[in-house]
Amino acid sequence: MRETVDQAGRATAQLMRAAALALVSYLYIALLLFTAVATVLVVGAAVLPETVLLLRRMAGFKRREVGAWSGKPVPEAYVPLTGELSERVRAATRDPSTYRDLRWLFAHFGYGLILAYVSLIVWSVGVFVDGVWCGLLRRPAVVLPLLSRLADVDAMWSAALLTPSPEARRSADLAERVEELTVTRAGAVAAHGAELRRIERDLHDGAQARLVALSMRVGLAKRAYDKDPDAARRLLDDAQDQAEEALTELRHVVRGIHPPILTDRGLVGAVRALAASSGLDVAVDAEGVEGKGVEGEDLPRAPAAVEAAAYFVIAEALTNAAKHSGSQRARVQLIRTAGRLRIVVRDEGRGGAETPAAAPGGGMGGSGLLGMRRRVAALDGTMEVNSPVGGPTVIEVELPCAW
User: Fold this and answer.
1) Which of 47, 69, 114, 189 has the most CB atoms less than 10 A away?
2) What is the DSSP-derived secondary structure letter of residue 75?
3) What is the pLDDT of residues 208-262, one digit of tens each?
4) CB neighbours (10 Å) of residue 219?
5) pLDDT in tens, 12-36
6) Element counts in the chain: helices (H) and strands (E)
C-alpha cells in the first residue's frame, strides 16, 4: 500500500505542476493579447520577441517535466532571436516552433486543468476504495494507479504537441548553421588580419630594414669607388652580407605564409621535419595519408589549404608542448578517413591547457590555441582539447578533405 501511495503522490505532484503551468498559461494568454495589439499598433513591437522567449521558457519547462516523468527527452528546435529588432521580430513570427508552442499552450490550458480535477476525484475515491481493498484485503490497488495513467496521458499529449516538426528542425538547423558560419567567418577575418599584420611587421622590421641598409652601403661604395677602392670593396662585402640576410628574412616570411617544404615534401614529410626540429622526441604516425595505396596506386594529397592548416596546427601544438608541457615526448598521428583528415597531437606533460579566454599564466592556453581554433574553424573543421591537470594533453583536429 505504501508503494502505491508513493507512486500516486508522485503522479499527483506531476499533475499539480501541470495544473499550475496551465494557470500561468492563463496569465500568459492575457500578455499575448496585449502584445498582439501593441505589435499591430507598432508601438509594442519590441515586446514581441520577449513574449516569444517567455513562451519558449514555459514550453522548455514542460519538456523537462515530460522528460523527467517519461524518461524520454522531448527535443526542441528554435530559430535564435538575435540581431536587430526587426530581425528578432521576423524570426519570432516566422519560426514554426512558435506556433507549435502556442498550440500546446492553448491545449494544455484545457487538459492540464481537467486532468488535475480528475486526479482530485480519483484521490477522494481511491483513498476509501484502495484503503479497504488494498490495505485490509491485501489485494492490488485498483483506483490510485489511475493517477499514474493520468500523468502518462499528460506527458503523452504534451510530448506530441511540443515535438518540433521536420520543418521546424530544418529551420532551426539552418539558423544555427548560419550563426555558426557567421562566427567562423568573423574568426577567419580576424585571423587573416592578424596574419597580414604579422607579415607586415616581419617585412618592416626584418627584410625592409636590411634592404635599406643594403641600399645605403651600395651608395657609399659608389662614392668611395674612385677615391678609396679598398673601402668601396669592404662596403660591397657588407652589402653582400646584408643581401644574404635580407633573403633569409624573406624566406622566413614566405614560410609563415605557406611553407615551401609542404610543396616539396608533402604534409607527412613536412610534419616529420617539424618533429625533428621541435626539440622533443616526437613519434609521427601517418600511415595511409600519402604515398602508395594497398594496390600500389599513388594516394592523392590533401588540398593545399588543408595541408597548410594541418601543418600550422601541428607546429603550434608541438611548440606549446615544448614550451609548457614539461614533457620530452610527444606523438603526432595523421589519420585519413572518408572525406576528412584527422590529426591527433599528444604529449605526456603536466596538462592544464585551457581555452584562450580562461587560460592562466602557465599551461598551453593563450593566443596559440585561439589561432589554432580560428585556422581550423575557417575550414569548417573541429578541434577538441583534452588536458586534465597532471596530463596528458591531447589535441584532436578534424578537417574536411576532398581526397
Assistant:
1) 69
2) P
3) 777 887 788 888 888 887 788 888 888 888 888 878 877 777 766 666 666 777 7
4) 12
5) 888 888 888 888 887 888 888 877 7
6) 11, 5
Q: Which amino acid is at 49?
A: P
Say if CB 39 and CB 47 are below 8 A apart: yes
Q: What is the pLDDT of residues 136-162, one digit of tens each?
A: 656 677 677 888 888 899 999 999 998
* 60, 52 Cβ separation under 8 angstroms: no
Residue appearing with cell numbers 635599406: 212
Cβ of 150: how many Cβ atoms within 10 Å?
A: 20
Return the ∠ at Cα 377 (arms to 371 and 382), rounded to 5°: 105
User: What band does 332 get if pLDDT is binned at 50, 70 and 90?
Assistant: very high
Q: Smallest Cα–Cα separation from 78: which of 184, 182, 183, 165? A: 165
The DSSP secondary structure of 292-360, one letter per residue, reads B-TTSPBPPPPPHHHHHHHHHHHHHHHHHIIIII--SEEEEEEEEETTEEEEEEEE-S------TTT--
DSSP state of 41: T
CA distance 57 to 64: 11
Amino acid at the residue 239? A
Cβ(184)–Cβ(378) under 8 Å?
A: yes
